[in-house]
Design goal:
single chain, 287 residues, alpha/beta, Rossmann fold, 5 strands, elongated, binds zinc ion
Length: 287
């Protein structure tokens, strides 16, 4: 996998930014699709000993240490549990100020930045407003709406859209049949979740059952009802049930049944407001 395949447009933009030496001090990368890889790549670009056309080589000692997250001037912060603590950010900023005085270049990457405690986010603001000349901060989030507006307005924002075609090819290279690869590529949010779905043992059963459920909707309600029971025992937790809705939408979208697509949206809304999965599927058949 290369970033140029994963996010061709963003890759080109950053190539240009690096060539012209215009890297900003604070970025917000929104979306999971290659954003972390891009952040590490930019970090490598600041330390690589063998830059090629302004791009890091990926092979030298510096590049490798950064990729292994074992390089002292590139720090990656992640939530512990469900939150990034204020102390973690304060300590990070202290380290940075110290090295800043020594004139060293530094990059820090904060994953799931939306999980920063509000005090942590506030202590970052000062850093963003008065950056050291050679320090860079890259915030990553999969939910931009949860990032404080004060932070967002001070960062350059790049959005990393899902690259479905890339995912599909990647899954086919892994030996998946075309049809399954394209289905998984359509429902997965990113590469990791796509690969997880290929390992999901009940995935094929689930798809077969959903297909029968859909086929019965207009012609044979009894068949659909039969599948409701089957589906309810097959997908028991919320994440799996959500996957079932996503699959339904993709499958119905392909068979061009707009009326049924609307029903799935309604059913999902009911499910989100705590009507059981089984009941909302029954509603779909009865409606
Ligand atoms: Zn290198």
């Amino acid at each position: 996998m290369t970033l140029a395949d994963l996010q061709p447009k963003i890759f080109q933009e950053f190539h240009h930014i690096l060539k012209t030496g215009r890297l900003s001090h604070a970025y917000l990368f929104s979306g999971n699709f290659g954003s972390y890889e891009m952040a590490l790549f930019l970090a490598q670009s600041q330390f690589c000993e063998n830059l090629q056309d302004s791009l890091p080589c990926g092979q030298c000692r510096e590049c490798r240490l950064i990729a292994e997250r074992d390089f002292s001037d590139v720090k990656v912060i992640e939530p512990q549990g469900n939150v990034i603590k204020t102390d973690t950010i304060r300590e990070l900023l202290r380290d940075f100020t110290r090295s800043g005085f020594e004139g060293k270049s530094q990059v820090f990457i904060i994953r799931d930045a939306d999980k920063m405690h509000i005090n942590a986010a506030n202590s970052l603001l000062k850093f963003i407003e008065e950056p050291q000349s050679s320090s860079y901060m890259i915030l990553l989030t999969s939910d931009e709406s949860k990032v404080l507006p004060t932070i967002k307005s001070r960062c350059q924002i790049f959005r990393f859209p899902k690259n479905q075609e890339y995912l599909k090819n990647r899954l086919e290279q892994n030996g998946l049949l075309k049809a399954k690869a394209s289905l998984i590529a359509a429902v997965a949010d990113d590469e990791a979740s796509a690969l997880a779905l290929t390992e999901m043992t009940k995935f094929d059963d689930l798809c077969r059952s959903l297909e029968k459920f859909i086929a019965g909707l207009d012609k044979d309600p009894d068949q659909s009802f039969l599948q409701v029971t089957r589906l309810a025992s097959l997908v028991t937790d919320k994440a799996e049930q959500d996957l079932a809705f996503k699959l339904l939408l993709v499958m119905l979208g392909r068979t061009r049944q707009p009326r049924q697509v609307t029903k799935v949206y309604q059913a999902r809304q009911m499910w989100l407001s705590n009507v059981s999965f089984q009941n909302v599927l029954e509603y779909m058949v009865l409606e």
